[in-house]
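All the exercises in this workshop are built on plain-text protein records. The record below serves as our worked example for the rest of this section.
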Amino acid sequence: MDINVNVRYEALLDNLLIKYPCFYFLKNQTLKHSDKRTWHLEREDRLIYCLQVIFIGKTGYGKSTTVNHILGQQIFESSDIESCTRECQSAMFQIHESTDLYYFSLADLPGIGESIALDKKYIELYSEFLEFSDTVVYLLRADQRDLAVDLETFSRLFATKKQRDKVIIALNSVDKIEPINRTKPFKPSQLQLENANKKMKIISDSLGISPNKVLYYSATEEYNLDSLMTAIAQNLKARIDKWA
């Protein structure tokens, strides 16, 4: 089955490696020609084989903003007021220099939590994309206390260990966690770090996921983005026997 994606950005992997050398192991990789790795680029009407990382979670948690700050450009539309993402938007990196068949992709999916009708539609979309993705970054907010929607969604999507092995839980907006710290550049205070670590344990226990798969960061402050990207790279590398 082929999936259509809206490609908003395309570059060589070298462009990503300048900022995130942790992905160097992908350079010049070839991928299995598997149905689970096949993507349709509608604008060029051709098929490619892609390592897919998807960002999912509630509306307003910063999925688009996170990918924009990773790229260092305003590629995906984002808003602090309302949801902007209604489709799969993707940034693609060609990983093999001699052929344009193989790519690494960072994809932003629509956010849940707007309405029951949209949630049903988007959770079905998540389920479909999970089958075609190697790593899932599930975004939460470090300063958010209400986990009801996230707990229900997570349990529906990641019922098995195999599914949970794909997941990284990323707590965005650690700069907003109490007590607020307005230093520039942002550096969390000791109390913020303590509260962030407590939140990580709550999330780990609530979702039944290993503590080493949970991390905190701030997209807008570009704090700990390196750790997020390293976690993504490590998750992909651990699964290398499935696609190399």
